[in-house]
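Figure 6 in text form: structure in, sequence out.
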C-alpha cells in the first residue's frame, strides 16, 4: 500500500513540475542564447510592416491613419480579393526608389474570407514534396499562381531600373508562407526574372507560418528572414495550419492539447520526421517581456539560424494571439530599431563592436554552421553546403554565350509567358524518385 502511495505521490509531483514549467515558460527563453541583431540587418523590417499595413487601407491618397511613409504614386499594382479569385491573398507591388527595392507585399489571413480557409485546408501531412523537402501544398499552389501572374511585371521592373534594384518579397501570417515558397521558386530559376543575382533577392516572413521542412528552412536561411514577436503562437505550432484555424474559436484549448502532446515526443524524433513543417529561414526574435515582470520593456532583437529547438515550445500566455497582429509587430519592431540606433550613436567616438564587413562574414558562417548542424543531427535530406546553381535554360545559355546581354535573349522570347507550373513540375520530377525511396524506408540525399 505504501509503495502505491509513494508511486502516486511521485506521479503527482511529476505532473505538478511539468505544469509549473509549462505555465512559467515564456517566449524569451526560445532565443536566450542567441546573439543580438544589428540595426543594419533589421532596418527593413518596420517599413516592410508598414507596407503590409498599407494593403488594408482602402484609399492610400486619403488614409484613415498616417505613418505608412510611402508614395502612392510608386504603387504599381494593387490586387484585391476580387482579382485574385481566391488563389492568393490581396497584395501590392511597390517600387521603393529611396531604398532601391522592388517589393511584392502579401497580406495575412482574413477571418471573414472562405477562400483563405480553402487555401489553408488544401494540404495533408507529407502530401507535397518539393525541392528536396516537404512544403504546404496549398501555399505552394498560391505561390505558383502569384508568380504566373506577376513574373513578367517583376522582370520588366527590374530591367527598367537598370538591374540595380533588389527584389523583396514580404508577407504576414498566411502571406508569409506564400512569399517564402515564392522566394524558393525565384531563387532556383532566377533567369525567369531576367537573371537577377541571388544576393539581390530577399524575403521577410512576418509572423511566419510553418510551411516547409527543416532542411529547406535551414538551406534558404541566407535569403528568407522570419520575424517573430515574443509569444506568437503560429511559428511555434507544429499542428497543421488547417487544424489551427478550424479551432480558431477554441485556440487556448488547442494550444494546451498540442503542448501536452509534444511533451511526450522526443526532440530527436521531431528532427527525424521529414514531413514536419517549420518556420522558414533565419529567425529574428523580438523580445519585450520577461518572467515575473509586468508590462512591456524596451524590445531587443535576437537572431540565429536554429536547427534543434527551433520554436518548438508552445507558450501558454495571454499574448499569444496579440503578438501575431501585424500592427503590434510594426510598433515593437520600430521601437527595437530605434533602440539599436540610439545605442550605436552613444558610442560614436569609438569603432562599433562588430564591423559591418565582419558581421557579413559572421552571417555567412552562421549559415554554414547551421547546414552542418542539420547534417550532424541526421535531419532528412539535409546538405552540408548549398546546392549547385541549377542549370539555366536555353535562353539564358544563349545570353551568356557570345557576350549577349539578358535583354537580347528576352527579345527572342517576346510574347512567351514564363510558366511557373512547368518550373514546379521540373522540381517535382527531380525529387519524385526520392519520395518513392523514402516511402520504402531507404536513406537518401537530395
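Output sequence:
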Amino acid at each position: 500500500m505504501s509503495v502505491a502511495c509513494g508511486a502516486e505521490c511521485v506521479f503527482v509531483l511529476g505532473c505538478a513540475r511539468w505544469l509549473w514549467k509549462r505555465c512559467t515558460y515564456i517566449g524569451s527563453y526560445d532565443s536566450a542564447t542567441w546573439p543580438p541583431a544589428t540595426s543594419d540587418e533589421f532596418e527593413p523590417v518596420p517599413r516592410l510592416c508598414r507596407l503590409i499595413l498599407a494593403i488594408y487601407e482602402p484609399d492610400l491618397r486619403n488614409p484613415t491613419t498616417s505613418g505608412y511613409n510611402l508614395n502612392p504614386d510608386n504603387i504599381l499594382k494593387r490586387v484585391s480579393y476580387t482579382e485574385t479569385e481566391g488563389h492568393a491573398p490581396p497584395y501590392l507591388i511597390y517600387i521603393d526608389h529611396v531604398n532601391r527595392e522592388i517589393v511584392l507585399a502579401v497580406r495575412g489571413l482574413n477571418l471573414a474570407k472562405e477562400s483563405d480557409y480553402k487555401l489553408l485546408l488544401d494540404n495533408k501531412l507529407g502530401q507535397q514534396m518539393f525541392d528536396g523537402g516537404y512544403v504546404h501544398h496549398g501555399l505552394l499552389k498560391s505561390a505558383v499562381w502569384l508568380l504566373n501572374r506577376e513574373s513578367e511585371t517583376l522582370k520588366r521592373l527590374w530591367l527598367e531600373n537598370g538591374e540595380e534594384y533588389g527584389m523583396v518579397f514580404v508577407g504576414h501570417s498566411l502571406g508569409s508562407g506564400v512569399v517564402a515558397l515564392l522566394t524558393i521558386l525565384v531563387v532556383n530559376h532566377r533567369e525567369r526574372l531576367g537573371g537577377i543575382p541571388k544576393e539581390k533577392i530577399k524575403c521577410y516572413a512576418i509572423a511566419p507560418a510553418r510551411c516547409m521542412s527543416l532542411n529547406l528552412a535551414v538551406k534558404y536561411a541566407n535569403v528568407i528572414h522570419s520575424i517573430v514577436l515574443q509569444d506568437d503562437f503560429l511559428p511555434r505550432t507544429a499542428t497543421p495550419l488547417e487544424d489551427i484555424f478550424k479551432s480558431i474559436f477554441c485556440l487556448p484549448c488547442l494550444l494546451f492539447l498540442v503542448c501536452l502532446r509534444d511533451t511526450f515526443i522526443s526532440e530527436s524524433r521531431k528532427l527525424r520526421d521529414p514531413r514536419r513543417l517549420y518556420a522558414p529561414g533565419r529567425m529574428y526574435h523580438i523580445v519585450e517581456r520577461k518572467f515575473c515582470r509586468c508590462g512591456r520593456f524596451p524590445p531587443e532583437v535576437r537572431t540565429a539560424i536554429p536547427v534543434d529547438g527551433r520554436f518548438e515550445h508552445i507558450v501558454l500566455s495571454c499574448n499569444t494571439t496579440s503578438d501575431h497582429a501585424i500592427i503590434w509587430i510594426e510598433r515593437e519592431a520600430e521601437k527595437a530599431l530605434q533602440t539599436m540606433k540610439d545605442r550605436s550613436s552613444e558610442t560614436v567616438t569609438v569603432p562599433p563592436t562588430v564591423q559591418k564587413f565582419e558581421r557579413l562574414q559572421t552571417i555567412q558562417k552562421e549559415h554554414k554552421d547551421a547546414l552542418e548542424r542539420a547534417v550532424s543531427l541526421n535531419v532528412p535530406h539535409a546538405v552540408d553546403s548549398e546546392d549547385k546553381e541549377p542549370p539555366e535554360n536555353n535562353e539564358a545559355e544563349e545570353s551568356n554565350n557570345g557576350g549577349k546581354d539578358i535583354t537580347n535573349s528576352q527579345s527572342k522570347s517576346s510574347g512567351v509567358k514564363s510558366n511557373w507550373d512547368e518550373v514546379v513540375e521540373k522540381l517535382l520530377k527531380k525529387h519524385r524518385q526520392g519520395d518513392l525511396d523514402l516511402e520504402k524506408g531507404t536513406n537518401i540525399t537530395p
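Caption detail: Residues 388-418, 438-446 have pLDDT under 50 and may be disordered.
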